[in-house]
């Protein structure tokens, strides 16, 4: 019997690649003593066994747990600052005095009341729990006060209604607080015990479902009895703290007391003495201090008076009777401050941060000597001769039309070239705001005829007709911008070469070059610029973590002597406005160009035009400015937007002090009322394609120097405000 032999068409399978699944021993044998490049480096990383890896992970978990416990023990302890709690009622049916009455339990601890105008607060000292609290309050209608106090509060206590949870004002306040960044918070329900017993369970279930949308996996506590108030205090004391980056890297202080000493030259300016507890980081007297809503100032010295609210007050025993003891209360401690006052640190003029916010530009820098009259006349004659260009044009072409005909090299000749030298004038505007806005309306807006709006005879008589007309015009302009973005009609009374002399054509907006330093406005000479912003930011943050700052430590009760402060600051404090101060990082008092990514709140429908004055909450700052809007893209050129759109995120550009990110951003628009909306459009025919000629022209747009750090009075809440949020702020 013959054996089978495979033919030439037998399938040849690929050999198994055993190297992929080799063990450590086979790899070492094949390597023949050769070592990997990483093992030859100086930083040899040892391979840990599985037991060592578990031990190392256990150590890291233990260290994190100890750090959290240490933070809990320090906050509110005798060595740390008091636990500051901001109480915010989210419904108009919430009784704030009743909630404070339950929290001010004399059996729990010692209560020290304090009242500044419309702001009620009190200090609660509880030696049994080894904790001290400082309770403050703010109404959701006073939105800017809520946002400012939330920037320094350790915990926010939200009071909810048992039936609805929160009303429209409270819902809007929550949206703004979420956008700014929430610290540690607690939810408490007030008034559920007043409901019938059968309805209490249903009310708690409905409220839990409503709260779950905004606060998932958060427990609801009750606040109707003294026992429930005690449980709430324990919850506040044992909560894990949430961190806000913009305040943890800067020393800040909430003023418990303030005094004003006027200067000898003028009573309107003087030295402001602010007393409070240092939080966040150690406070150095040579740094610049920012008072929220009022601006930046320098400090003269820092005093260390006696803590007026010690957790364990001093006890002095009588010499006559050893069994008699006298307890030193807070009032006695304040009276003894002058005797025990100690100057902690005085400012050093050589090391103190400067208040210079702008660069003083040199008008002669990079300039040549002024030409003589003969040189000017020769240049003018030469320009006339060179401006005469011979072109081949179609028969019947006018001289005006010939100016727009391109040569073979893609450039137009004639008199239009004389306007190239005047492009920079667009960036050196020195007219008033009203003149500038009228010119912008004339240049940027499309001209069209719209019929008169029909008014109802039964319309509200109290409506301001002038304000209504302005708002209606804004709605029309916004609608036109949405329908025909970046389109402008050629004016009939002005030549196109004059109307668009500041624009230029680009073959491709994405790829065509445009020098970023070309024809910059004069304001750019006033700002500070970074050679490498990312490296500077990284270096400053590293110094905060590693370098020990000389000054007042966290938890100390200090008095800051702030120089050259207007008297209006202390007047607002006496009327009830909270006084909050932040220590600035290096360079944060200097002006620059800030680019912020924002998105419009879906509840706002009112048109917001570029260059309108808005109120900014940028990190710890609050200021007013007129921003520009542009598209948020990854290109090197960004298209200007005339209105703040609702569907996409935009970049807001302003002149403002440097703020190192991350920092949240909120924009608000101040209105006198919620305005009625109108829209009426009439069209007399359909446009055909041959009726219009379109050209892509571009020019650079720069913000105006409208920064104003003085925002003293809180703005009452209105439903048409804008709430915008951003995770980070970028600077150019």
Automatic annotation (TrEMBL):
Any GO MF annotation of the entry:
GTP binding
Example of a GO cellular component annotation carried by this entry: preribosome, small subunit precursor
Biological process (GO) annotations held by this record are: endonucleolytic cleavage of tricistronic rRNA transcript (SSU-rRNA, 5.8S rRNA, LSU-rRNA); maturation of SSU-rRNA from tricistronic rRNA transcript (SSU-rRNA, 5.8S rRNA, LSU-rRNA)
Residue spans of biased composition, Acidic residues class: 405-446
| Localisation per UniProt entry | Nucleus, Nucleolus
Bms1-type G domain segment(s): 81-242
Biased composition, class Basic and acidic residues, residue ranges: 46-55, 65-76
Sorted alphabetically, the keyword list is: Nucleus, Ribosome biogenesis
Q: What is this protein called?
A: Pre-rRNA-processing protein TSR1 homolog
Role played: Required during maturation of the 40S ribosomal subunit in the nucleolus.
Q: Where is the composition biased (Basic residues)?
A: 13-24
Family named by the database record: Belongs to the TRAFAC class translation factor GTPase superfamily. Bms1-like GTPase family. TSR1 subfamily.
Indicate where this protein is primarily found: nucleus
Q: Where is this region: Disordered?
A: 1-84, 401-448
Q: What is the lineage of its organism?
A: Eukaryota, Metazoa, Chordata, Craniata, Vertebrata
The answer to whether keyword DNA-binding applies is: no
Q: Supply the source organism for this entry.
A: Capra hircus (Goat)
